Amino acid sequence: MQFTAQQIASFLGGEIVGDALVTVGNIAKIEEGVPGTLTFLSNPLYTQYIYTTQSSIALVRRDFEPERPITPTLIKVDDPYTCLTRLLELVNQATSAKSGTEEPVHIATSAHIASENVYIGAFSYIGERATVGNNAKIYPQVYIGDDVTIGDNVTLYPGVKIYHGCRIGNNCIIHAGAVIGSDGFGFAPQADGTYKKIPQIGIVILEDNVEIGANTTIDRATMGATVIRKGVKLDNLVQLAHNVEVGENTVMAAQVGIAGSTKIGAQCMFGGQVGIAGHRRVGNKVTIGAQSGIPNDVKDGMEVMGYPAVPKIDFARQTVHIKRLAEMNNTIKQLQKEIEILKNNHKTANE
């Protein structure tokens, strides 16, 4: 689809500087812009590219004034990055606007599928008494188990598996290969050294506006529910164990692992490969640096890093000391030599 600068400016509430009738049909990075594309300038570090980009339209801040001639028509807005997000949402909606049911699929006779704009891709399975809300997009090879609830405006990408009884709220996005509701890792050691499986009879609850990355796994509770509160965003390859709770608007980067029954607060930020021990409590607005290990509770508002994790400023000091270890080791060896010489001199003097 093609859009004019005037149409885009009207949608964003922006001010046009240049040709209002120029058209674009795609979006590009500012350093890779070509004719017929729209780009944006949000980070001042990229200002140099506004003078070389060949994009036809550029979103800039309202106070931006070019210092030399530029190619693109400018659309001045309050926040170019936020406006770009709105445009990307439009593009995404246009490219994913599917509806209807492909064949073959299996839909249980007791399942309830809403009537408005639902898409069900080929080779999908919808179990007994499952419920699918309006405007749901279920891509091919999705498995929805018995008694699962899927809310409105939910997107399940190819290969998503949702085990029996789990509940998915409104406006959730679950990416390819994610598994929601597999058994928690519960095994009781026996006297003969074997392990007896503990039945996992709970469920997983995803509240509204949750996004789950590709190949992420969230285990069902042993009893009760593993709960992901509204607004949570999980990256690819995240593992949440049974009975974990994650607070509102918390975000986790790839390969985070959280052991069973740990409670995570609201508005936390976890870097990649963070590991948290079981039965811990992490407060609200906690930031954890990448590859950190959390063996203990973390209080509200703390910024921690390292293994085991310590306050961010302490980690920085430790890093400085680690870099000096070789120098300090050489100094110690030199001091040891000097001490030996002094001891020998003292011994000789007393003989």
Features:
single chain, 351 residues, alpha/beta, 12-stranded mixed sheet, 10-stranded parallel sheet, 40 strands, 17% helix
How is this structure best described in words?
- The protein is of the alpha/beta class and 351 residues long.
- It has 4 helices and 40 strands.
- A 12-stranded mixed beta sheet has the order 8-11-14-17-20-25-28-31-34-37-39-40.
Q: Got a strand count?
A: 40
DSSP helical segment count? 4
> Termini, distance in Å?
100 Å
Radius of gyration: 28 Å
Largest sheet composition: 12 strands, mixed
Oligomer: single chain
Average pLDDT metric? 94
Strand content: 25-35%
- Structural shape: flat
Poorly predicted ranges (pLDDT <50, ≥5 residues)? none
Structural class, by secondary structure, is: alpha/beta
Helix proportion = 10-25%
What is the topology, as strand order, of the major beta sheet? Answer: 8-11-14-17-20-25-28-31-34-37-39-40
Can I get a quick summary?
The protein has 351 residues and is an alpha/beta fold. The strands form six sheets. The protein has a twelve-stranded mixed β-sheet with strand order 8-11-14-17-20-25-28-31-34-37-39-40.
